[in-house]
Known about the structure:
By secondary structure, the chain is an alpha+beta fold. Helices cover 38% and strands 21% of the residues.
Amino acid sequence: xxxxxxxxxxxxxxxxxxxxxxxxxxxxxxxxxxxxxxxxxxxxxxxxxxxxxxxxxxxxxxxxxxxxxxxxxxxxxxxxxxxxxxxxxxxxxxxxxxxxxxxxxxxxxxxxxxxxxxxxxxxxxxxxxxxxxxxxxxxxxxxxxxxxxxxxxxxxxxxxxxxxxxxxxxxxxxxxxxxxxxxxxxxxxxxxxxxxxxxxxxxxxxxxxxxxxxxxxxxxxxxxxxxxxxxxxxxxxxxxxxxxxxxxx
Length: 249
């Protein structure tokens, strides 16, 4: 596996990798699949595609060059494979990495508060939907998001605050156990994250560490918002889409 990671730009046939591992191709293929859960060819293809996605996010060169580096002979073949894995074309994926500045109007939400590590917010979502359902707050056009109050690099995990939130109409009375939250009108810098939630920090780093210092703007001392564009219960982690809204002064 380490050899594959270090030689992605080289020919990585089954025979060659079996020789590196000092097995016959037949036994190496069976052993590799048994230990990793993936056939050798699929493992190599996945790593090349993940590297291509990273380069698209960083704007590293023309798409056709990235396609060739990933082992595809045409733009069309790469586009089909990329769409099958990430749910959008390479061009759409790259465009989503562009930062947009938007002004959001006043909104209201009902929310379930979580205090503790961000990796454990699932309980707050369960509580939110369990209480919002009987109150008839669920239905078509559901808009839900996370309100992220603390920087995990600066706040101890046990003290991190997060609200699992559901947009509601003005004047909504929250059911017992949920809080009514006002989100004032404000400008946000918006950047899309494609991939697992546990990698959101990478997109925050690009937004705050690369775009913000060059933008001439300052981040506001208030919560960021994460809009979850698809359902994690039915979407593979690599195809999850989250829009990060960074509040601006």
